[in-house]
Amino acid sequence: MQSKTRFVSLLLIALVVSFATYSAQASQAEDKSAQDQSKAEAKAASDIKSAPSDEGQLATVNNAKIPAYAKIYLAPMPGGFENYIIAGLRNKKVSLTVMVDRSKAEYEISGVSESEKAGWAKMLFIGSQQSNEQASIKVSDLKTGAIIFGYSVHKGNSVRGRQSAGEACAKHLKQVVID
User: Fold this and answer.
1) 8 A C-beta contact, residue 167 and residue 92
2) Domain that holds residue 122
3) I need a surface site. Which of 79, 105, 144, 151 has the fewest CB within 10 A?
4) Is residue 71 domain-shared with residue 3, that is, in the same domain?
5) CB contact at 8 A, 61 and 50
6) Are residue 137 and residue 161 in the same domain, yes or no?
7) Each residue's pLDDT tens digit, 119-146
8) Quick check: 67 and 179 in contact, CB under 8 A?
9) Based on the structure, what is the number of domains in the chain?
């Protein structure tokens, strides 16, 4: 009986050590990839003005502004993320008019999002079911084709998942809307 208990204890210790090692390696790989990506973006974007943010990266080109109640179209995004942005625009009281028909809009929001659910190890050992959310949006002027706004957010351990990422995008979009 003692050998079974000892075996189970050693197995649990091995699982914990392997999880910690994997997490550390994944974190280092993410940091390196993020550094490489930010270096490439810094070289390519000389006319983009960055603003500090607590959640992600915000960029406006040539201090572009969007007039209040401008007609904006939300392009379909993977996983229906456009719905979370629409809800975020409402919750953050962003004064834009969302259009269903792209041809009647002045601006277009497009983007991508990714949601990473908590794995079994995170739920078992940490007791957390919170997900990691990543999203990026850009706003382009449909008449000129110019991209006038961009925002990228990464929410680690997000309680409300995509809703939180959609609200973050809307909150920062509000900064370039002229009331």
Assistant:
1) yes
2) 46-176
3) 144
4) no
5) no
6) yes
7) 555 455 555 556 677 788 999 999 998 8
8) no
9) 2
Do both 29 and 83 map to the same domain? no
Secondary structure (H, E, C), the chain: CHHHHHHHHHHHHHHHHHHHHHHHHHHHHHHHHHHHHHHHHHHHCCCEEEECCCCEEEEEECCCCEECCEEEEECCCHHHHHHHHHHHHHHCCCCEEEECCHHHCCEEEEEEEEEECCCHHHHHHHCCCCEEEEEEEEEEECCCCCEEEEEEEEEEEECCCHHHHHHHHHHHHHHHEEC
Residue 108 CB neighbours (<10 A)? 18
| Same structural domain, 8 and 67 | no
Q: Is the pTM of this model over 0.70?
A: no
Same-domain check for residues 100 and 164: yes
Predicted confidence (pLDDT) per residue in 91-100, tens digit: 999 999 999 9
User: Do 84 and 37 share a domain, yes or no?
Assistant: no
